[in-house]
Amino acid sequence: MKISTRIITAVLLVAASSSAVYAFSKHGDWGMSSAEKVEFISERVTRKLDLDDVQRQKFTELAELVNDTLQEVKPGREQRLDEITSLLEDPSFNQARALELVQQKTQLVNEKAPLVIASLASFLDTLSIEQKQQLREFMQQRHEHHRHQH
């Protein structure tokens, strides 16, 4: 896969699932289980976009897939952070090991991206023009809010 294709896929993946990821991270301190987070997000999106049953089901499938992917990434996080810190402290930066760590992390994204994109497409294809416009406006607001925070 070309690097440009990987970058585009990663950007689409991040942009398209930003609302789900944002909600997962925003409400992570509420003590919710993963299933409760998916339900919370699905209810919120259903209410905001006025989704019908088919659309709700498609969104729930997307949210569950994103959640499962996030859960797969979490294990070993502390160990990876410790290893990165160790690499930074070494007198000579071990480029090969750093590249290996990056490749390990991106491998999961590369494996899951087609599934997430297909699920996202399935959900988006069920939305009306008005719902897609609402989604675009929400994403634009999130982008502007994020830009102002930094």
Can you characterise this structure?
- The chain is mainly α and 150 residues long.
- 83% of the residues lie in helices and 0% in strands.
- The longest helix is centred in the C-terminal third of the chain and has 30 residues, at 95-124.
- The radius of gyration is 18 Å and the shape is elongated.
Residues in helices, as a percent range: over 70%
Tell me, what's the shape? Answer: elongated
Instruction: Please report the distance between the alpha carbons of the first and last residues.
Output: 32 Å
Number of E-type strands: 0
Helical segment count? 7
Number of domains: 1
Q: What class, by secondary structure content?
A: mainly alpha
Strand content: under 5%
Order of helices and strands: HHHHHHH
- What's the gyration radius in Å? 18 Å
Uncertain residue ranges: none
Write down the overall mean pLDDT. 80
Largest sheet, in brief, is: none
Main attributes of the structure:
150 residues; mainly alpha; 7 helices; 83% helix; elongated
What is this entry, summarized?
The protein is an all-alpha fold. 83% of the residues lie in helices and 0% in strands. It has one domain (3-149).
How are the SSEs placed, and which strands pair?
Elements: H1 3-16, H2 18-26, H3 34-49, H4 53-73, H5 77-89, H6 95-124, H7 129-149
Helix pairs in contact: 1-6, 3-4, 4-6
